[in-house]
Amino acid sequence: MSADATQRAPQGRTLSAAPGSAGLARRAWPWLVAIVAALLLPWLFFDWSTHRHSGFALTMLSEIGLMAIFALSFNMQMGQAGLLSFGHAILFGLGGYCAAHTMNAVKAGAMWLPVELVPLVGGLGGLLFGVLFGYVATKQRATAFAMITMGLGELVAACALMFMGFFGGEGGISTDRVIGISLFGVSYSSSWQVYCLVVAWTAIAVLLMRLQTQTPLGRMANATRDNFERAQFVGYDPRMVRFCQFALSGFFAGIGGGLYAIVYEIVTFDTVAAAKSATALLAAYIGGAGGFFGPFLGTIVVVLLQSGVSLLSNAWLLYVGVLFIVMVMYAPGGLVGIIAQHAPIARAGRLRELIVPYVRILLPGAFSVFGFVLLVELASFTTIGAAQGKAFKIGPQAVDPATAFPWLLGAAALIGGGLWLRLEARGFRARWDALMADAKAKGVML
Amino acid sequence: MSNAISLRGVTKSFGRTEIIRGVDLDIPHGQRHAMIGPNGAGKTTLFNLISGRFSLTSGTIELNGRSIDGLAPHEINRLGLSRSFQITSIFPRLTVFENIRCGLLWARGYRYSFWHLLGGQRALNEEADRLIERLNLEDRRNVPAGLLSYAEQRALEVGITVAGGAEIILLDEPTAGMSHSETEYAVALIRAVTEGKTLLIVEHDMSVVFGLADVITVLVYGEVIASDVPARIRGDKAVQEAYLGTEAA
C-alpha cells in the first residue's frame, strides 16, 4: 500500500499531465462529495416535529461558506504572494455594500438583476476597489505593504462613519434579498434557499481560486513571494504580479461580501473594520497558509468558536486568541501543516503506532485545557456572568465561585495537566522521531 | 557587426566611494567573455549595472545597440539578457520543474495570464522537462528547490537563467563553492547551454576561466587593465603583477 502511494504521489503533485476525462473525474469527486456533504449537513439539525430547518445551524453554515471565500481570498495575498494584509476586510465589506445597494435598486425597480447574480456584483465591486487600493498598496511589499493596507483599512473604516449616503453610518445599509427576480424562480425568503445559494457560490469561488493557483499569474505570485529579484530576472515585474494578484483577491473577497449582504440583509461598518480583517488572518493561520485549503479549515474552526462557543461563554474571543498564539508558536504550518507532517509516516504505513502516544498526550492536554477554561470562566463569571443572574455549574454540579474550591481545582488541573503533558511530550517526541527516521530510511519523505 | 554588450565610460559610486572608475568594454555577439580580478575589483557591481540592478552614476551601457539607461531589471531581461547571482537565487518553495517553468513563462508569451491552466500547456511543460533533462535533474523534478544540494541548486539557477532563451547570459561565479568534479560538470553544462550565445562570466577558478573564455577582461579597482585572448592575458606583465602574481604567491 505504501509503495503504491509513493508512486502516485509525484504524479498528483505535478500538473503537467493533461487532464483526461478519467483524471478529471478523479479530481472532481472530492469536490462533489464536499458539495453533497454541505447540502446534507443542515438536515442533521432539521426539526422533524415542526418541519423546520434550524435557523441557527443554517446561519452558521452560511457564515462558514462566505467567510471561507473571504479567508481564501486573503490567502491569495498572504499564502500565495507573501503579502500580509491588515486591511483585507475593506474589499469584503465594500463588495457587500455594493451588493446591498444593488439589491435595493432592483427592489426599487431601478434595475434588473436576479438574486443569484448579486454576489457577482459584490465581486465586481471588490475588484474595482482591489484595483484602486492595490495600485497604492502593491507599490511596496513586505512590511511596507502591511503598513499601507493597515492604513487603507483605517481609512475606509473612517469613511464608513463619515459618508452616510453609501455606508449608512453606524446603522449600515439595510436591504431585502426578496427582490422578486430569480433565474430559477426561487424567492430566497427561507434560510434554506439562501444556504443553497451560498453553497453554490462558495463552490464556484473556491474552485476558481484553486484553478487560479495553477495559472501563470498564480505561479509567478509564488515565485515573487519566494524571491522577487529572481522573478525580475526572468522577465516579470514583481509589482505587476502583486497588483494583479491583489485585484483578483479583491474580486473573490467581494463575492464573499455580496453573500454576506444576502445572508444578513444588512451591511454595517463591522464588515470593513479591522476585526473582520483579523478574522481572515486568524482563519488562515489556524488552518495553515501554506496549503490551499488551510484557510477553509481555519474558517470552520473560527466560525464554530465564534457561533458555538459564544453561546456558552463570554470569553470565546479569548479562546480564539489563545488558539492563535498556540498555533503560531507550536504549529506555524497550521492544521494543514500538522496533517501534512504525518504524511511520511502514513506512507511508511506506521500511522497506527501513533495512536497510543497521541492518547497519552491528549489526556493530560485535556486536563490542562479543562483547568484553563475553568479559571477563565470563573474570572469571567465574577465580572460579567454574576451580573446576568446566572449560576455557575461544573457539569450538573452547581458551584459557588466565591469559594476557593473551584479556583484550586482549575489551577490544579492546569498546572498538574501541564506538568504531566511535559512528561508525556518527551515520550511522544521520541516515538515521533523514530517513526520519521524510519520514513527517511524507507525513502518516503517526499 | 554590432556588439551584444557595449560599455562606454561607465562609473558607479556609492556615496563618495567610486567602485567602477570609467570602464569601456565591447563584447561581440557569440563571444564567451570572462571577467577576472581580485576581490573588491567591482566585477559583481559591473554585473549589477549591466543587468539593471543598480543604476549608473555616469556613462552608457548598450545591449544590442540599445541604451538600457533607466530600464528596470525585468525590462532589460525582456531585451534578451538573463543573469545568475553569486549567492544562489532560485525559488526555494517551488519544485525544480516549476522553477524552470517560471523561467520560461514570460519568454513564451504567458505574461500575467490567469486564464491559462499550466497543466494543459503541453509544449511549455515538455520544454521545461527537456531542459531539466539537460541539467541532469530529472530525479529531482518534483522536489522543492530549497531541498536540493548546493551543486544542484547552482545547476538549477543556470537552468532558470538560460530557460527563456535569452541571447546574452551573465553568470556570476557559477562554480563558487563547488568540488573539483562538480566544477567540471558545471563547466560542461555551461558550455552546452550557452552554445551560440553571448556569455559574460565572473569566475575565480582560473582553470574554468582559461578553459571556457574566448576573451578575458581583467578588472582591478574598478578599471580594466587588460582585455585580450587568454594566451596574451597569461603573458601580460600588468596582469601578473596586479592579479595573477599575488594569486600565485
Automatic annotation (TrEMBL), chain A:
Lineage top rank: taxon: Bacteria
Keywords assigned: Cell membrane, Membrane, Transmembrane, Transmembrane helix
Descriptive protein name: Branched-chain amino acid ABC transporter permease
Transmembrane regions: 28-46, 55-74, 80-100, 112-136, 142-167, 179-209, 246-267, 279-304, 316-340, 361-384
Family annotation (CDD domains): TM_PBP1_LivM_like (cd06581)
Coiled-coil residue spans: none
Membrane topology, record value: Multi-pass membrane protein
Automatic annotation (TrEMBL), chain B:
Organism: Reyranella soli
Source lineage: Bacteria, Pseudomonadati, Pseudomonadota, Alphaproteobacteria, Hyphomicrobiales
Coiled-coil regions listed: none
UniProt keyword Lipid metabolism present: no
Keyword Transcription regulation found: no
Protein name, UniProt field: ABC transporter domain-containing protein
PANTHER family linked: ABC TRANSPORTER ATP-BINDING PROTEIN (PTHR45772:SF3), CONSERVED COMPONENT OF ABC TRANSPORTER FOR NATURAL AMINO ACIDS-RELATED (PTHR45772)
InterPro entries assigned to the protein according to its UniProt record, in alphabetical order: AAA+_ATPase (IPR003593), ABC_AA/LPS_Transport (IPR051120), ABC_transporter-like_ATP-bd (IPR003439), BCA_ABC_TP_C (IPR032823), P-loop_NTPase (IPR027417)
CDD domains recorded: ABC_Mj1267_LivG_branched
GO cellular component: plasma membrane
Keywords, alphabetical: ATP-binding, Nucleotide-binding, Transport
Pfam families for this protein: ABC_tran, BCA_ABC_TP_C
GO MF annotations, alphabetized: ATP binding; ATP hydrolysis activity
Domain ABC transporter: 5-246
